[in-house]
């Protein structure tokens, strides 16, 4: 398969709208077609729904969900948030769309007056006019396009990769002799990604050339944007990726009954990493740089201090758990303790015609100085395999010398012995101290009880989630009845390497409360299902 340039667009939607903006997905439609009124705002905006349903004269708007879109145009990245309300009517006619109110960053935004025209759905196919070719219109008696005119291909942005090198994969519809049909994947049929780790993404819209020549014939194309995948090869060899089943059904002007077709997999060749690898190599594949942050200027004997290492770039860092202590055999820094990893990633343009995740991982450490003087670890050499150059490369980090001073004197609390009335005052002090201790003890008991209950709920949810991530996790919890917004939050909080109990500690008060509420609801739901 030839390489091609991926352009990430939002189709006909406005790209550079200033501030929040409402618009209709279409102003004219046939009765029964899906029509939406959409609020488009910046990806980082805080949106609160005022109502989930608005009624008009013979028309109703019902909240349909929120989508995050990443758009790359001319190598610039834009992020949009789309809040959708579906419009439903029972009869054809011209309707005034109900005015929608949504709160964006604390301010109310109104949709204003909009009109929608609904035409009756014809029971027979339309006759061809002079402006359209007869090939686009079929009567109910015709079978529609031939099977060879409809194909679904799985495509990747590369046809040769190295072990551990992430690639982008997606499904594309190829069709001819028809108007673009409806397409959806059969979710009862699994997708085959042999020897690849896969992660489903949402909110990524892809667009490839509208016409292609395939097997000597011209086809029109449409990307299936509901599912986009990041795929990481685990073993060398030649593989076929993306085998599954799709359902296709014709639109009104070129109707045909639903058909189920198997996808045409993508052939990909995976190369093994060069051997022998350097002793410092721990599995990082990509192009990275390493940095040092929050490093103190001074420290004191017996008092712990903290710092963090950052590794940023594009590629695969899933095997890197501890870049500092993992290179020591035996442990070469006995005074250093690894605390935790925090992972950040951002889907963006990585190079001309290449898109993927930009990673920024931070590794947190604590140090307990054992003696006075200059504390200076050995220079760190972080080694990775760079697919671009086809060889192993290294990024070095030099620790600055840190002056460890003598122990700081402990503060002493001096009490003065007052003369005079000791009897009454000592009794009063005892009562006050007793009240304080009892109140503190009660507070500690309540706090610990909440903490242990939260940890138990989060651990139970972690066990149920297992290996589910991203879109798969979101879809699983939505099948349990969790709203889409809360399902998206949970999918965003769940990391590949950090358990929910650790993620909980890093969240703010509001997010902590939301995570516990969602986890408790799911835990109760799972208990109900187990008891049935």
From TrEMBL:
Q: Signal peptide location in the record?
A: 1-17
TM helices/strands, residue ranges: 427-448
Q: Which UniProt keywords apply?
A: Membrane, Signal, Transmembrane, Transmembrane helix
Answer yes or no on keyword Transcription regulation: no
- Keyword Glycoprotein attached: no
UniProt superkingdom: Bacteria
InterPro entries annotated for this entry?
Answer: BatD
- In its UniProt entry, what is this protein called? Aerotolerance regulator BatD
UniProt organism field: Leptospira dzoumogneensis
Upper taxonomic lineage? Bacteria, Pseudomonadati, Spirochaetota, Spirochaetia, Leptospirales
